[in-house]
Amino acid sequence: MSRTLLDPEEFEFQAMDYEQLLPSGRAVVDRLWQVLGGVARAVGLPDNRIDSGDAKDPIEPAEKQVRISAMTAQQPIWTDNAGRHAIATSFGPVPLVMAEPAGASNGTVLLVHGRNGAPGQPQIAEIAEAYLALGWRVVAPELPHSIALPDSGPSDRVTFSGHTQAAAEVWAWVCQQWPDERRALAGHSIGAFAIAHLAAASPEVHHVLAVSPPLSGRVLLSAREAMGPAAIEAVMHEAPLYYAEMPTADAAPALARTQAALAVVTGAADGLVRLDDARAYFNAAPNGRFFAALPDEHHCPAGAACGRMLSAALSALGA
């Protein structure tokens, strides 16, 4: 089956968020699809394939997109009942999506999205819901330079170092707000890259949960090289500063210094963070507790099987 680099469900969830937050939300999403389609054609992909760099899943025909919209519009997501807050950072105000557990809090997790990510995307929602089910408070920032977040700034300005620094500033705020609670770090894709650095500098962190985690920029570059020239050209065009950091961005030294228990959940069919590369992330940490690869899942795992695996991972971490 042909696979591409964006899950349509990610943008259906985003469409709902935009409609709640912006007066012209649907127009924003419609324009986003137009822009991404233009990028696809520019890099030589078929008209029904678009490359976001942060997922690898099929784009369905337009008529199926309409059906998906109708179905997902009726499905609750963790952000529906979450609060919103913004904090000052060196990047400007960063919005936070925050959800409280039903009962007493067992701790607070900082949940970091990847490149072109957002708290409402299915792979992030799956992680959030696993934590909420165990009584954890979830804090998920809308980090700068994500194409899925129209107010976050130009997506071509994203970098590994900037993503990590923005996450670190939110983490510092979390630590100040809940100094006496258990605190954990979770991240997807380069969100997992970022939290490796945060964990290394935070010996008190309870645990780390990494989903589809790249050990380095070189891992992601190598995966794109295996896909062919169009995949390299796409990332060079979309995110030139990110591309420039790919040869040197490395989480291995940070993971080697991380004392917290680590779990990794990944898709066995992920074409961006390949299975051996996800294992390398896990093996780089001295306190790895749980590793799981979901059959047939790609870069943005979600669904019932993923939810069960995340619950097992959190159990192994003592969450």
TrEMBL record:
Highest taxon of the lineage: Bacteria
Signal peptide: none
Residue stretches making up the AB hydrolase-1 domain: 108-213
Name the UniProt record assigns to this protein: AB hydrolase-1 domain-containing protein
